[in-house]
Amino acid sequence: MRRHEVAIYDDLDSEQDVLTKLEEPEVRVLSYIAGGKRVRVRLDLTEQHAKEMDDMLAPYLKAGTEVDSDDVPRAVRHGGGRRMGSYNSGLKAWADEQGRSSDYTTPSGGFWPKKQLRDDYAKFLEKAAGGK
User: Fold this and answer.
1) How large is the angle between the packed helices 115-128 and 82-97, nearest 10 degrees?
2) Angle CA(8)–CA(38)–CA(22) in degrees, nearest 5?
3) Is the pTM of this model over 0.90?
């Protein structure tokens, strides 16, 4: 009789040529967009490495807005271009109607919408689409 076993090792340790076998791995799946390219990664980690990663990412996750993949503007999902311009144009027009131009204008006159403005605009879009 043959018996095959699957062993799972900590991915971070494995990068350092150290094999830390995991009996019960802490699994993390990350999905993000960098440079217009979608990256999705699964990590099998020790409890310690998972905690270190969670602690390191905590301020970023707190500052961000939780979204479903359907909530991410199409242009962001596919790397920008003209569609991102229409999202920004819509956000600017809506903010102007609300008297909130200062929520997206930088001191130098550039465009950088504040998190609360983006969150409020997302709620507006959801409501306009017949959502909650």
Assistant:
1) 90
2) 10
3) no
